[in-house]
Structures are given as structure tokens and as C-alpha cells.
Amino acid sequence: MTIPDLIKDFIDASKERLKTPISGAFLWSFIIYNWRPIFLLMFSNKSIEDKITVINNEYCNLLAIIVPILMAIFYTKTIPWIMLQIDNDLLETKLKRIDNIYDSRSHTMDRKINIAKLDFKLKNAESGNREIEDYLEQIESLKNSNKGLQDSIKNINEANNNTINELNNQFTMLEAENSKLKHRLKYNSLRVNILSETLHLDQKLVDHTVIVADTLTFTEYMFLWRQKMTENNMVKYTTDKAEMVHELANKGVFIIDPASSSVQFTEIGDLLCKIIQTV
């Protein structure tokens, strides 16, 4: 065993001994009773020989050991009993104090519980209001969406109606054109038949009549179809037909008499009118 190990064992043993109640009490009692030689030894300016001489003559006696031992025994045996008596005397006070502490804590906890309940109700109310606001916003959003859909449907219906009207108009126009074509085809067929039967007419008149007939519009055909000639091939016309009459006159169908608001058919017009009215 080395010297450091011996020193370590000595220190550990000293610690164990100092931890006992009697050892600690004796140490403090010795310091308290012999404080004067200790202070003299530590703080005096005299030489060490003088200090030892003074301590041997004045303080080194049997009482310096016996009194600290008695004080340590008294402290070790009496102090716990005194503390016990004090604890017994203070027990009721301590119990009341503990009761007061726990009553105070209980009251504090009750108050906290009440506050927590109020906070919970407040949060529920706020959450409920928030949910109601969310529902109202959703309802408003759905209303706006529904309105937008209705507007879209309305616009689509209007567009469809416009498309249907346009298609109906186009269909009507096509029917009218078809009717015109039918009338024209029928007219051409009859014209060919009539011209074939009347080949004894002047060929130039027939050719010229065919050329003029090809330039006539459907409205002009219908106008000629409705006319009833007098014996002198004269026809009255109204002012709303004046433009058409002048157009037919330019094509060589009429000769206009402005004074009587009437027209006279030319040979071409007479032949065209007879052909058309046979349809």
C-alpha cells in the first residue's frame, strides 16, 4: 500500500467518524470552549514558543477536555428530546397551518376550476359563433354560386333561343328560296313548253324574252303574276311599286305613262306575263 492510499484511507475514516453525532458535537464544543487558545495560536504575533508557553500555563488543563465532552453528550442526548418537545408543542399549530395552506390551495384550485369552466364556455361560444359565421359564409357563397349558375343558364337559354331564332329564320329563308326555286323551275318548264308551242313567233322576240326572264327576281315574277291587263295592255300601279315598275321598264317589260300612273306592256312584257300567269 502506498502513502497516497494511506492518506486517502485516513481521510475517509475521518469523514466517517465526523459524521457521527457525538464527533460533530464534540468538535464544535471543543472549538467553542477553547476559542481563546485557538485564536491566540492562529492570530497572535508572538513567537510559537511564547504561544505554546502561554497556552500550557493558562489553558492547558483537564477542563479543556472534560467540558467539551460533557457539552457534546448533553447536546447529543438533550437536543433531540428538546426538538421533539418543541415539535409536539408546535404540532397543532403546524397542523392548522398545513390545513390553512391546503384550504388556501383548495380555494385557489376551485377558483381556477371556475375560471377554466368559464374559459371553456367562452371558447365553446366563440367556436359556435365561428362555426355559425362559417356556415353563413358558406350559405352566402352557395347563394352567389347559385346566382352565377342561374345567370349562366339564363345566358345559355338566351343564346340557345337566339340560335333557334336564327335557325328558324334561316329555315324560313331556305323554304322561301326553295319555293322560289320550285316556282322558277315550274315556270321554266312551262316556258319551254309554251315557247315550243309558239315557235311560229318571231325567234328574236322569243330569245329576247328568255334573256329578260332570266334577269327577273322572284318579287318581279310575283308582281307580274298578279297583274290583270286591260284590253289595251294597260296596268295601274301604286306609288309603293313605282321603283319596281321603273326597274321592269328598264328591262323592257313596261312602257310607263307618268300622267296616268299606269304602264303598258311591251311585246316582251305581254309574252312574259302570259307565260307567268299560266303557272
- Biggest sheet record: 3 strands, antiparallel
The strand count comes to 3
Helix share, percent: over 70%
SSE string? HHHHHHHEHEEH
- What is the overall number of helices? 9
Write down the Rg: 71 Å
Average the pLDDT over all residues and give the rounded result: 77
Low-confidence stretches: none
Q: Note the beta-strand portion.
A: under 5%
Sum up the overall morphology in one term: rod-shaped
Head-to-tail CA distance between termini: 153 Å
Structural class by SSE content: mainly alpha
Strand order of the largest sheet: 1-3-2
Explain this structure to me?
There is one protein chain. Helices cover 81% and strands 4% of the residues. It is rod-shaped and about 190 Å long. A hairpin with a 4-residue loop joins strand 2 (254-257) and strand 3 (262-265). Strands 1-3-2 form a 3-stranded antiparallel sheet. By secondary structure, the protein is mainly alpha-helical. The protein has 9 helices and 3 strands. Helix 7 packs across helix 9. Among the domains are: 3-113, no CATH class; 198-277, no CATH class.
List the helices and strands and how they pair.
Elements: H1 3-18, H2 21-33, H3 35-43, H4 48-58, H5 63-197, H6 203-215, H7 218-226, E1 234-236, H8 242-250, E2 254-257, E3 262-265, H9 267-277
Antiparallel strand pairs: 1-3, 2-3
What features would you highlight for this structure?
279 residues, mainly alpha, three-stranded antiparallel beta sheet, 9 helices, 81% helix
Q: Quick gist of this model?
A:
The protein is mainly α and 279 residues long.
